[in-house]
Amino acid sequence: MSDYLGAHISIAGGLHKAIERAVSTGCGTMQIFTRSSNQWKGKPLTEKDIANFRRTFDDSGLHEVISHDIYLINLAAPDGDTREKSLSAFADEMMTCARLGINKIVMHPGSHTTYTPGEGLTRVIDAFNQLFEGVPEYEGFVLLETTAGQGTNLGRTFEELQTIIDGSRYPDRFGICMDTCHIFAAGYNIATEDGYADVMEQFNSIIGYEKLQCLHLNDSKKGLGSRVDRHEHIGQGALGLEPFRFIMNDPHFEKIPKILETPKGDNDSMDLVNLALLRSLIK
Fold first, then answer.
1. Quick check: helix, strand or coil at residue 177?
2. Residue 153's beta-bridge partner residues?
3. Relative orientation angle of helices 81-100 and 117-134, to the nearest 10 degrees
4. Ramachandran category for residue 188: left, alpha or beta (phi over 0 → left; psi -120 to 50 → alpha)
5. Strand 219-220 vs strand 231-232: parallel, antiparallel, or unpaired?
6. pLDDT tens digit sequence for 14-25
7. What interhelical angle do 15-25 and 269-280 show, nearest 10?
8. How far apart are CA 168 and CA 125, in angstroms?
9. How large is the average pLDDT for residues 210-230?
């Protein structure tokens, strides 16, 4: 497809198989985990794995592939085992993406646990200063994802994300991934036309459209301000169809990757349904 719509795709059978699945699903972009999302260390990639991935991507017609870091990583964690493993795992993700030719890594900013939110943000800033310096092979971007703010999760507000960018020695290495379910659950009402316009004006004023490098298109099982992260099929949750109509017709986002993270169904059949529905909203 020539547009920038896509989905998160399984890497079962090899990384290059994900690209084949994305093409068969009608994606123009795609997102993957480069390893199992719930294990600290993935299977090492061989040169053959890398070559197969790069060749398949070159032949695919996809605009780009985006990586999502594993869910175990918490760069705001206290000193100790979790923080060390998180730094090591994210550094490995950066090196893996450098080898694969992927230049965007989406990540959740982390949880401040026993710290204050401000202290947690400082720990994230310090972690990325260390990571950017320690992995010069990776020359791409880290996309801070908006979160629902569940528990002690950081990234619920645009201001928190901008604090990370402003505090870093490498502000130009960051972008933003905006998740529709997450911002709605965090309290940003994009479900109405006026609300959508207001939220996007806030985003542009606080962070800036130039930093927005990915959208996750997910409806929400829970309501506005619930601070609960539960994805639903497009148009079947508390958001409804209208915010997706606004996004699909917003010129700011025409060439921004727009990735589904909705329930898959049998054989990823629901990706086909959700992608078709989103495309039908374009005027």
1. strand
2. 111
3. 40
4. beta
5. antiparallel
6. 999 999 999 999
7. 50
8. 6
9. 98
Q: Are 227 and 156 in contact (CB under 8 A)?
A: yes
Q: How confident is the model at residue 238 (pLDDT cuts 50, 70, 90)?
A: very high
How far is it, in rounded angstroms, from Cα 75 to Cα 84?
Answer: 9
166 phi/psi in degrees, rounded to 5: -65, -35
Domain ranges in the chain?
5-280
Round to whole Å and give the CA distance between 218 and 221.
10
User: Measured between alpha carbons, how far is residue 108 from residues 2, 208, 230 in Å?
Assistant: 29, 19, 15
**Do the beta carbons of residue 155 and residue 161 sit within 8 Å?**
yes
Backbone torsions φ then ψ of 259, nearest 5 degrees: -110, 130
Domain covering 5-280 assigned CATH 3.20.20.150 in the classification: yes
Closest CA to 42 of 15, 65, 80: 15
Tokens of 68: 């999502």
* Amino acid identity for residue 177 in this structure: C
HSE-CB for 141 with a 13 A CA cutoff: 19
Cβ proximity of 217 and 258 under 8 Å: yes
Model-level pTM?
A: 0.97
